[in-house]
């Protein structure tokens, strides 16, 4: 096993734990944008973590159904984080412009449906649309595992798959810039606004959400552009027909790592793709796992755990003291 593979497995395992630590606070606050971020980053990191363990140094196909699922999930993951960043930036913009601080139950449901439509619906839609340009079932790459197959058709591949991360990233960037602009305009009264009865944010949390979304945009746009370029640099095959694209659809290609490394940019693209998810988990933890509310939560958990561990001991000690009373029996 190479040092790169060991590092990926170890760091992915740590990342899976780290991203779950801030989950209780975000769940109680019902921050659906960050909950979707946690869900996508965790599921993607877990998928690549399992694939790295199972397919290290081999090209077998022990779990075809798992490969079907993980290859399709990989397509959604390419869109999911830009979509979730859009959800977060949109919410921050609405708060900064005083549009959704006071929400009725109906308005809250409406905003939640929009968040899920963007952060969950669009990635699922891309996974469904991917079938149109899916040349065969999946590929298995040594050390990486199951990856999706794309039929590079100029008339369908770009609008159905490649354009979505770039489009979502650009829209998210616009919302982020407008949110920051609105925040700077009313920063003196912003603390009062966020401390309103129906808001679960304060200025610190707001700025951390903005920093998270901004960092995602800064990383996602170049990454999406590079992946699109890597897919298009070798040219696009013309679209012939549905039957031509899906001919021998059940085939599975087995690609040794050494062979893929000979293709310019191919191994680099795969490496960036699978490292992006653990890094997203660690990034989220750095913004929220070390925050004041998270540290307070950790302290409460530790205190309760210590109390539970000492409870049997304290009860036993009390019984001994009482039993040694002059009366010689337990009161």
TrEMBL record:
Keywords: G-protein coupled receptor, Membrane, Pheromone response, Receptor, Transducer, Transmembrane, Transmembrane helix. The lineage of its organism: Eukaryota, Fungi, Dikarya, Basidiomycota, Agaricomycotina. InterPro entries: GPCR_Pheromne_A_rcpt, GPCR_STE3. The chain crosses the membrane at residues 6-23, 35-57, 69-92, 113-133, 162-184, 205-229, 275-298. This is Pheromone receptor. CDD domains: 7tmD_STE3. One of its GO terms (biological process) is pheromone-dependent signal transduction involved in conjugation with cellular fusion. It is a multi-pass membrane protein. Belongs to the G-protein coupled receptor 4 family. One of its GO terms (cellular component) is plasma membrane. Pfam families: STE3 (PF02076). It comes from Hydnum rufescens UP504. It is found in: Membrane. One of its GO terms (molecular function) is mating-type a-factor pheromone receptor activity.
């Amino acid at each position: 096993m190479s040092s790169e593979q060991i590092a990926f497995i170890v760091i992915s395992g740590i990342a899976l734990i780290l991203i779950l630590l801030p989950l209780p606070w975000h769940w109680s606050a019902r921050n659906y944008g960050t909950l979707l971020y946690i869900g996508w980053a965790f599921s993607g990191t877990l998928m690549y973590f399992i694939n790295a363990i199972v397919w290290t140094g081999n090209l077998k196909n022990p779990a075809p159904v798992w490969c079907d699922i993980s290859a399709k999930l990989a397509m959604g993951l390419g869109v999911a984080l830009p979509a979730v960043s859009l959800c977060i930036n949109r919410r921050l913009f609405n708060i900064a412009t005083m549009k959704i601080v006071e929400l009725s139950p109906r308005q809250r449901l409406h905003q939640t449906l929009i968040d899920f439509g963007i952060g969950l619906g669009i990635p699922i839609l891309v996974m469904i649309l991917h079938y149109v340009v899916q040349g065969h079932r999946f590929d298995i790459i040594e050390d990486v595992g199951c990856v999706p197959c794309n039929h590079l058709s100029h008339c369908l591949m770009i609008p159905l798959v490649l354009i979505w991360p770039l489009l979502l990233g650009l829209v998210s960037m616009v919302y982020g810039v407008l949110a920051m602009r609105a925040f700077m305009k009313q920063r003196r009264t912003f603390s009062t606004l966020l401390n309103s009865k129906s808001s679960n944010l304060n200025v610190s949390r707001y700025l951390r959400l903005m920093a998270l979304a901004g960092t995602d945009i800064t990383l996602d746009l170049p990454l999406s552009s590079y992946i699109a370029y890597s897919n298009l640099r070798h040219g696009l095959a013309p679209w012939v027909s549905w039957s031509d694209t899906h001919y021998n659809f059940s085939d599975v290609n087995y690609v040794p790592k050494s062979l893929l490394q000979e293709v310019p940019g191919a191994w680099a693209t795969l490496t960036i793709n699978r490292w992006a998810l653990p890094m997203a988990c660690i990034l989220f933890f750095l913004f929220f796992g070390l925050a004041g509310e998270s540290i307070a939560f950790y302290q409460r958990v530790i205190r309760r755990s210590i109390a539970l561990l000492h409870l049997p001991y304290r009860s036993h000690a009390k019984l001994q003291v009482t039993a040694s009373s002059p009366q010689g029996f337990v009161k």
